[in-house]
Amino acid sequence: MTANLLDYDLEGLAAFCEGLGEKRFRATQLFRWIHQKGATDFAQMTDLAKSLREKLPASAHIPSLKVVSRHDSADGTIKWLFDVGAGDVIETVFIPESDRGTLCISSQAGCAVGCRFCSTGHQGFSRNLTTAEIIGQLWFAEHFLRLHLSRSDRVVSNVVMMGMGEPLQNYSQLLPALRVMLDDHAYGLSRRRVTVSTSGVVPMMDRLAKDCPVALAVSLHAPEDALRSNLVPLNKKYPIAELLDACGRYQGAAPRDFITFEYCMLDGVNDQAEHAHQLVALMREHAVSGLSCKFNLIPFNPFPASGLKRSGMPQVMVFAKILMDAGMVTTVRKTRGDDIDAACGQLAGDVQDRTGVQQRMATQRQGMLKGIKVVSREVGV
Ligand code: SAH
Ligand code: SF4
Asked: Do 130 and 150 belong to one domain?
C-alpha cells in the first residue's frame, strides 16, 4: 500500500519524508504542490529534488475523490456527490456569495447522533471519513472551481463542517484536516473562516479549544432539556447546562469570538414565543459567565420521513424579534441550492438506509404521537 498524501498535515508529511530518507523541509515544497497547485503527478513537481521525485511514485499517491454526480443550482450553488466506497456516498456543497465562497464539508458517511429533523441522522452511521477524504473535498472543490471559473486565486474562502456527520465524533481524522485548511503552505484560511459545527460533544469541544480553536457553531435547537433530548438524542449524555459551560470554556481559548447557536425552526415543536423567551432566560443565565453568542435560525428543510414541518416565516420573525429585543444578535439563514437538494439536512438523501435506523425512527415517532415515552439509542463519543 502506498501512502495517501492527502492524509497528512505538514508535520505528518515531514515525518513521511524523513521516512524516505529526505530532509523535512522537502515536505513544505511537496505540501504546496499538493494543496496550492492541486498537482497529482510527481513528475510535474519540478522544483523537488530529483531523488525525491523518483522515489515518490513507488511509495505515495494523491488520489482524487470519485465524483458520482455534480448538480449546479440556479443560484450558483454547486453540490457534489462523492463515492467513498462500499456503497457510501458523501456530499460537499459550494455556496458562492458576493464577498465569499463557502464550502460545506462532510465528516462522516451517515451520522450516529440521529437528530429527528436531519436526513443524515435518519440514515444511521456508516463510517468515519479519513483525513484524506475530509481534506480531499476541499482539495477537489478548490482546484475544480479554479479551472471551472478560470481563476488563479483562491476560490474557497470559508469552510463549514456542516455536511454529513458529527465532526467531533471523528476527532482524530478531523484535526489534521483542520490543520491543513489553516496552514499557510496549503489553504491558509484564518481560523475564523473555518467553522466546526457540533451537536454538542462536550469533551471534544474542550479538545478542539486546546488543539485548534477554529470558529464554533453549536446546534442547540431547543431551550430546555426534555425537548432537546427528543430532537438531539446526544443531549441525554451532555445536557444543555454542560454544553453551555463547555461553550464558555471554548471562548476562553478563542476570546473575542462569538459562538453561533444554530436553531432549526420546526413548526409547532420548538418555534413558539415561549421557547424564544426560555432561550433568552437561558442565555442570560450563562451570559453571567461571559458567554457571547449569536443565533442563526435555520428554516427546516423538510423530508418525508421526518414527520416535521417548516415553521412559517411570520412565526420565524416573531421568534427572531423576541431574541433581538433581548439584545441577542440573530440572523435567519437563507436557504441556498433548494432546487438541487443541497440545503442543510438534505444531503445525500438518496443514500440507502443500511442500518434500519429509518424504521426505528418511524417507530419512535409513532410512540411520540401516542404520548409514549421515547426510547432512543445511546450515542458514544
Ligand atoms: N453534526 C453537526 C454538523 C452537521 S449538521 C451538527 O449537527 O451541528 C449541520 C447543521 O444542519 C446543523 O445545525 C443541523 O442542525 C442542521 N440541519 C440538519 N438537518 C436539517 C434540516 N432538515 N433542516 C435544516 N437544518 C438542518
Ligand atoms: Fe448528525 Fe448533525 Fe444530522 Fe444531528 S444534525 S444527525 S448531529 S449530522
From this structure: yes
Local structure of 92: helix, strand or coil: strand
| Statement to judge: residues 330 and 197 lie in one domain | yes
What pLDDT score was predicted for residue 67? 98
Check if 344 has its Cβ closer than 6 Å to any atom of ligand 1: yes
**The domain boundary residue, chosen from 11, 46, 61:** 61
Told to judge if 18 belongs to the known catalytic residues of this protein, a careful annotator would answer no
Range of the domain at 344: 66-378
Which ligand 2 atom minimizes the distance to the CA of 119? 3
What's 86's domain CATH number?
3.20.20.70
pLDDT tens-digit series, residues 332-342: 987 777 777 76
Distance from residue 342's CA to the centre of ligand 1 (Å)? 12
Look up residue 89 and give its three cell numbers: 456516498
Instruction: Tell me, yes or no, whether 141 and 16 share the same domain.
Output: no
pTM of this structure: 0.91
Same domain, 227 and 265: yes
- Alpha carbon distance 348, 187 (integer Å): 26
3-state secondary structure of 80: strand
Same domain (yes/no): 364, 318 = yes
Q: What is the pLDDT of residues 149-160, one digit of tens each?
A: 998 889 999 999
Residues 316 and 230 in one domain: yes
312-327 burial, b if ≥16 CB within 10 A, otherwise e?
eeebbeebbebbeeee
Q: Which residues are 259's β-sheet partners?
A: 293
Element (H, E) at 228: helix 225-231
| DSSP H helices in 183-312 | 202-211, 225-231, 240-253, 273-287
At residue 346 the predicted structure's pLDDT band, cuts being 50, 70 and 90, is low
